[in-house]
Amino acid sequence: MNSPRTTLYRDKQNAKLMGVCSGIADYTGVNALWIRLGFLVAVLSGVLSPIVLPLYFLAGLLLNKKPEYLYREAPEEQKYWQGVRQSPKRTARQIRSRMKDVDRRLAEVETFYVSSNPRLTAEIERLR
């Protein structure tokens, strides 16, 4: 089952009609204006309107409304989850890189602290 943060919702808080375009914008991280303009061009071109318009209303009926609590904690959380949805592999690489950096910094702190505390150094060596 998908996490609520990786699911496509209708965004009624930023909606103009049913919240589908703003939901797609929230999901992808693309500005809602561009999504709406793309939808408008598709409808007005006439070629795609028999497909796009029914899909829009179908999505408006089938998609759940975005939960109120989503991204309430911090705005950077929304950007993080948009990145996860756009490229999960890139996000995993970034997290691994950050964790390696944290591990490296902790090792530096440990080295500094242990090297200045001979009793602790002896205790660590005894445990090995």
Would you mind describing this structure in some detail?
It is built from 6 helices and no strands. It has helices at 20-28, 32-44, 49-62, 75-86, 88-115, 118-127. Helix 4 (75-86) crosses helix 5. The chain is rod-shaped, with a radius of gyration of 24 Å. The model has no long low-confidence stretch (mean pLDDT 77).
Topology diagram in text:
Blueprint: H1 20-28, H2 32-44, H3 49-62, H4 75-86, H5 88-115, H6 118-127
Helix pairs in contact: 1-2, 2-3, 4-5
List the defining traits of the structure above.
rod-shaped, mainly alpha
Query: Which range best describes the helical content: under 10%, 10-25%, 25-40%, 40-55%, 55-70% or over 70%?
Result: 55-70%
Helix-and-strand structural type: mainly alpha
Number of helical segments?
Answer: 6
The main β sheet shows up as: none
Strands, total number: 0
Globally, the shape reads rod-shaped
Order of helices and strands: HHHHHH
Uncertain ranges:
none
N/C terminus separation: 44 Å
Please indicate the percent range of residues in DSSP E strands (runs of 2 or more): under 5%
Query: What integer is the average pLDDT?
Result: 77
Radius of gyration, in angstroms, nearest whole number: 24 Å
Short description:
By secondary structure, the chain is an all-alpha fold. It has six helices and no strands. Helix 1 packs across helix 2 and helix 2 packs across helix 3.
